[in-house]
Automatic annotation (TrEMBL):
PANTHER family: BLL3903 PROTEIN, MULTIDRUG RESISTANCE PROTEIN MDTA. One of its GO terms (molecular function) is efflux transmembrane transporter activity. GO terms for cellular component: efflux pump complex. The keyword Transmembrane does not apply. Residues 102-167 form a coiled coil. Keywords: Coiled coil. It comes from Gracilimonas mengyeensis. The keyword Hydrolase does not apply. It comes from the Bacteria. Residues 281-348 form the YknX-like C-terminal permuted SH3-like domain. Residues 69-189 form the Multidrug resistance protein MdtA-like barrel-sandwich hybrid domain. Residues 202-272 form the CusB-like beta-barrel domain. Belongs to the membrane fusion protein (MFP) (TC 8.A.1) family. This is Membrane fusion protein, multidrug efflux system.
Amino acid sequence: MKRILITIGVLVVLGLLAIPKVKSLTQASDAGQSSNASNEPLLVDVHLVEAQVFENKIFTTGTLLANESVDLRSETSGKITELQLEEGQQVKAGELLLKINDSELQAQLKQAEYRLSLAEQRETRQKQLLDRGGISQDQYDATLNELNVLQSEVDLIKAQIDKTQINAPFDGVVGLRYVSNGSYISPTTEIANLQSINPIKIEFSIPERYAGVVEEGDRVIFSVQGQDQDFEASIYAIEPRIDPQTRTLRMRARAANNDGLLLPGAFANMELILEEIEDALLIPSISVIPELDGQKVFVLRDGVVQEQQVSTGIRTESSVQITSGLAPGDSVLTTGLLQVRSGQPVRVDEVDRFEELDL
């Protein structure tokens, strides 16, 4: 029994003496592994700089308008005797759409024309007498004045007759009509609407800071609900003042609408192309690091990171244009920007290109 106790005691003492040794070996092993890990190159992602065509654009919304639009109303009151407009009908400029009863005016016109004919004959005879000295100049002038008055009466009645009919003021499409043949109408009666929708207009506004870079002829890309395609328009008119309430500049563009897919009143999402830059160099915005004296990026050359001062131009939500400091073919770091230092070797994990950026 005593021998067993002695043996156990010896083992315990040996164990206590071995603990510091084992601990130092473990720490040395961990230190070796840590040292090996720190010597491995940092894994980073890079963006390959390429020259591309870049469109500087802004996004806004607008409303589609008819190229020409008019509410058809009569200039006079009366009963409709002829109705030649149908809903959805294509009409040509000058085409008769509606006629109001003008029988009374026609009778007045015939009466006035008879009186005018007699006055013309009398003026002819008076002219001959005046030439022979048979009457005075005052007598002839009175006859001529009567002729002119009767001619004015005829012209007045004809003008009133013209108001009894409605002709299409331009080529267009007739909307819903609200009268029927035989209806009694007045100038306040809404008859129908006529709209010309090819081409179609788009009205929109942009922030005042872009007023100096927008001009007539600039392209506009827009889309509307219910259509899966984009449409292109061209600015044709710009308001010559800034709206003081909204601080925006209003303008209009015109687009072809040969198929009639675009309807006035529709809401449009728009892209206004301000500028098209050839051979633009763009990189992800995250790669640009601001400094007190400018901006820099980390460039990978021969597996080693180098700092590069750059100048920037146009910015988008995810990218920025580089105007100086980089060249096509450069590789710009997009990850590990807080860990890397100039002169540090790194290893590339992924390479992205311009096509993968959401501009």
